Amino acid sequence: xxxxxxxxxxxxxxxxxxxxxxxxxxxxxxxxxxxxxxxxxxxxxxxxxxxxxxxxxxxxxxxxxxxxxxxxxxxxxxxxxxxxxxxxxxxxxxxxxxxxxxxxxxxxxxxxxxxxxxxxxxxxxxxxxxxxxxxxxxxxxxxxxxxxxxxxxxxxxxxxxxxxxxxxxxxxxxxxxxxxxxxxxxxxxxxxxxxxxxxxxxxxxxxxxxxxxxxxxxxxxxx
Length: 223
Known about the structure:
about 10% helix, mainly beta, about 220 residues, 13 strands, 1 helix, eight-stranded antiparallel barrel
């Protein structure tokens, strides 16, 4: 836990330095604040079957869902006429649910085990756009740095964890600014990584082909 907090502090410091550099170059007035983000995933289930090349054993892995989650942290926001720029550094927790079945000679197992994987990461969304009155619209990249994760799938024969620390995505957002200090944003976040990418089966990467896209409601208070 101590090493995780050190990583959080370093990443937050890096984001703050990045946004400060932009502020210095542009000579814009930046606002600092706190953000909370509440999200829900909307994905289709996906299944892949794996054969152990050593024994006559098959494993069927199904992605079921991603739990609703939250994130919170610091943010900075600046305007340049009708344009705006925002950087965030958020601590994020995620849970992904799978079902795994052991199939022998491709005979479908009646029951399967439910497996939940938990992730803790730092999410760094950087967005920009334009403001019309009290409304703002924009988008930008998202960088997620993994801090800690469970590896429950490794309890099943053939599955091995991959060292995937950084994942990327993109977000679109529409929001409203209340009295120039409170921001309420609706976000659509698209992940470039697919569910299961952090595992391989023997030497074959797990490629379920479904991406954890989410809707989220984000609230920020800026000074």
